[in-house]
Design a protein that fits this description.
CATH topology: archaeoglobus fulgidus dsm 4304 fold
CATH class: Alpha Beta
Radius of gyration: 16 Å
Oligomer: single chain
Number of helices: 6
Shape: globular
Strand content: 25-35%
Largest sheet: 7 strands, mixed
Mean pLDDT: 89
Strand order of the largest sheet: 5-4-3-6-9-11-10
Low-confidence stretches: 1-8
Number of strands: 11
CATH architecture: 2-Layer Sandwich
Distance between the termini: 31 Å
């Protein structure tokens, strides 16, 4: 594990260039189906696609961070992983990733990417009024802070600086605005459920 310096509740990794990245996205699911939802991790060493992780999380549940941490820590890719990249902070509906917990469990920077700035008022309303434990889930989103515009996307981060965030997005967004680790995870997740990949995340 590389040495790190503390900034608030997160550990800022000092390295300037992140090469070994695992990007996660959830699979599409039927809104009328309450069953578990597949989640896919795409492993990249630089721009080389190196492997896949697959597990399931609970629809609108609370197990996303725990499951993602286990997927990484129990895999052969754990030793070389340097950064975790997420396609949004909520998976499988409103299974909100506890980014602080994921960061602490793995000791790795976490980068959350969105193509557009989310409507936080609508998300808060949906969580508070429709989802069991929604207030706690909203607190997790607030704890991470607002999404920041970075290049052509929006990002939330734990354990890396804004300059590091911009650098890693620029390096890995080679086929559009979305970095390859989560773009690839999105394509695999779609094919896993529907037999063919969907469009860009």
């Amino acid at each position: 594990m590389q040495s790190a310096r503390s900034k608030g509740k997160y550990i800022i990794m000092p390295q300037k260039r992140f090469s070994n990245i695992i990007g996660f996205d959830d699979a599409p699911f039927d809104r009328n189906d309450s069953g578990p939802v597949p989640v896919v991790g795409a492993i990249f060493a630089g721009l080389r696609f190196d492997g896949v992780l697959i597990d399931r999380i609970t629809r609108d549940g609370t197990d996303a961070a725990r499951t993602l941490a286990a997927m990484v820590s129990q895999s052969k890719f754990n030793e070389h992983a340097q950064l975790i990249m997420l396609q949004g902070i909520a998976m499988a509906g409103f299974n909100v990733v506890d980014v602080a917990q994921l960061h602490e469990r793995l000791g790795l920077p976490i980068l959350v990417i969105a193509r557009r700035r989310p409507d936080m008022s609508a998300i808060r309303e949906a969580l508070i009024t429709r989802i069991a434990g929604g207030s706690k889930k909203w607190a997790l989103i607030e704890q991470l802070g607002p999404m920041e515009p970075v290049g052509n996307v929006f990002a939330q981060r734990a354990g890396l600086s804004l300059d590091q965030t911009a650098s890693v997005i620029e390096r890995f967004a080679v086929h559009g605005h979305i970095p390859e680790p989560i773009r690839t995870a999105h394509l695999i997740a779609g094919a896993l459920v529907e037999g063919q990949s969907r469009g860009n995340p």
